[in-house]
Amino acid sequence: MTERPWVELGDYELNYGSACDIPTLRPSQELEKSLLAPLTSEPKLPPLSIGVHIHSFYPETTSQLLSNLCTSLPSFDLLITTDSSAKQLQLQSQIHKHPHSTIIKQSEVLVTENRGRNIAPLLLKAMPHFADHDLILHLHTKKSLHQQFGEEWREELMRSVVGSSVHTSSLIHAFQADQKLGLIMPMTSPSIRPFLNWGANYEIARLLVDKELPDRHLSAMAPLVFPHGMMFWFRPPALAGLAAAARNLMPFPPEPLREDGTTLHALERLTAHFCEAAGYRWALCGANATDTNPAKAGTLSVWQEQTSLYLGLVGQLAEAKRKGDRNELGISRVLESTKQQYAAMEREAEHSMAECQTYIKTLEARIEWLENQLQALKQSTSWKLTGPLRRLRRRFGPGAQT
Predict the structure, then answer these.
(1) Distance CA 44, CA 163 (A)
(2) Angle, in degrees to the nearest 10, between helices 240-248 and 202-212
(3) Which residue from 29, 47, 174, 302 puts its CA 20 to 30 A from 223's CA?
(4) Whose CA is closest to 72, among 178, 184, 162?
(5) pTM of the predicted model over 0.85
């Protein structure tokens, strides 16, 4: 079996990294590059009104986000959501003291219930707040404490959606150039590619689709693409259906939340699905993709089944599994033989140790007997009477005449 939890065929991968669900079809890294939003020069169109939403559970990281935004974006309106009044005051102070705060036209900090992570504040608070804006940029103070690469991942996501001013302007211009572009989300980071799958969320997502989009059919044989890390650009109408689904799911489960298998994880994976269902298309953006963006972004549908491709990959996975089973059987046999050899050596060593211990005990008994004999001799009358003679012999040597 390969060390990576997927098998490859052409431009697609079948990820089998989750033990609790069916394998997941995903585009390869090379195919994702063809889906990048194109680098475009600024169209001669009216500027777009931009709303930025930040869900700040960790206010200490928000100041850096504001700096990135103010150096990369034109003027924008800002909404920050957080979960306590103390954090609200801290965030309001950060905005007021920020040296580039003049770029922020209007700002507000709202306290929301600590449910729904960053998704509920976006869909239930930010979208109504920015209903009259052309674009919304959604960010959050992500830490992913359960992953070792959480900090690195957050920075990469930020560079993807808010990089240099040229990079960020190009993403905005892509929306201006294509009125049907509804969503731009980061391409897959290599560090999390092994974890991008349906996981324990497919059945939840299927039930959500059946309820919210009855004319659609969710299939595991269609490719899964979603904004991992949940930082992305979008037009509000493109995700109106996702917001409606979120409202219908209220109340969200309380914290602490499982790492997988919740309605929130299912909603996250359906972002591109709702975008397409609303009549829009989506594209990707990358932190280091400036020189590789295509002149025109390719298209891929998360609803379109790739039946023959999926079955081919499943067959390839089954063959790899069979080879793995044979290898495992061979290893098991070698392991069992090694265990038997070790057991025989251990028994031989134990037998030798027992013989040594018996011999040692015999020697100890002989020494003890000799010591007793010597002690008895030293206490005898003859030993005492011959004492002067022994002293003379020691003095004049063993050959002296007495």
Answers:
(1) 23
(2) 100
(3) 174
(4) 162
(5) no
Per-residue CA distances from 43 to 171, 172, 176 (Å): 12, 10, 7
Closest by CA to 136, choosing from 231, 216, 58, 57, is 231
> Burial of 220 by CB count in 10 Å (0-12 exposed, 13-18 middle, 19+ buried)?
middle
- Look up residue 305 and give its two tokens: 């089944």
Cα radius of gyration rounded to whole Å, the chain: 37
Residue 53 CB neighbour total at 10 angstroms:
22
**By C-alpha distance, which of 194, 146, 185, 211 is closest to 269?**
185
Q: Mind spelling out the 3-state secondary structure of 27-95?
A: ECHHHHHCCECCCCCCCCCCCCCEEEEEECCCHHHHHHHHHHHHHHCCCEEEEEEECCHHHHHHHHHHH
How many angstroms separate the CA atoms of 156 and 138, rounded? 15
Task: Collapse the DSSP code of 109 into the 3-class scheme (helix H, G, I; strand E, B; otherwise coil) and give the result.
Answer: strand
- In angstroms, how far is CA 342 from the centroid of its own chain? 40
Q: Digits of tens for pLDDT over the chain (402 positions)?
A: 346 788 888 899 988 876 566 889 999 999 999 999 987 766 667 889 999 999 999 898 898 889 889 999 989 999 999 999 999 999 999 998 888 767 899 999 999 998 889 999 999 999 999 999 999 999 998 665 445 556 788 888 999 999 888 899 999 999 998 999 999 999 998 888 888 899 889 999 999 999 999 999 999 999 999 999 899 999 999 999 999 999 999 888 888 888 888 999 999 999 999 999 999 999 999 976 554 676 677 789 999 999 999 888 888 878 777 766 555 555 555 566 667 766 777 787 788 788 888 888 888 888 888 888 878 877 777 777 777 777 777 777 655 554
Structure tokens at 257: 């939340």
Positive or negative, the Cα torsion across 203, 204, 210, 213?
A: negative
The strand pair at 104-111 and 76-82 is best described as parallel
Listed residue (181, 286, 185) closest to 226, CA to CA: 185
How far apart, in whole angstroms, are the C-alpha atoms of residue 142 and residue 27?
Answer: 25
Which residue in 94, 55, 74, 56 sits closest to 135, CA to CA? Answer: 74
Looking up tokens 């023959």 gives: 308
* Sheet strand arrangement including 50-55: 104-111, 76-82, 50-55, 135-140, 232-234, 181-186, 281-285
Tokens for 54, please give them: 């930040």
